[in-house]
């Protein structure tokens, strides 16, 4: 069985956060969703658990950081540059913030950062490994 990741995020408004992630292309798994938490599925191996603040506090005594702080940036790959742009546009139209950092375009790699309604930072990125510039290989 492949390893899976469940990113757990504290959210102030569960319904609004579910709608936000749905707009970004996540599906809801009702088996792990109730009025305190929701499992939003991006792929067979990537899930985001949205937890109300009360539910979050059942797992840790550490404080929930303010939305203006950064503790992690979660990068997710997209199928194309257009998909990166579409994710950022969906974020802006659904309660999030697009382009919270300057977009980066290296030709072979393109990314844009967004924040969800609670300030959690995501980076939508596309990369063409075949187009990565080949530098001089150092022999050691």
Automatic annotation (TrEMBL):
Pfam families: Ble-like_N (PF22677)
Keyword Cell cycle listed: no
GO terms of molecular function: lyase activity
UniProt domain VOC: residue ranges: 3-127
Highest taxon in the source lineage: Bacteria
Metal-binding among keywords: no
Family matches, as PROSITE patterns: VOC (PS51819)
Record keywords: Lyase
Protein name: Lactoylglutathione lyase
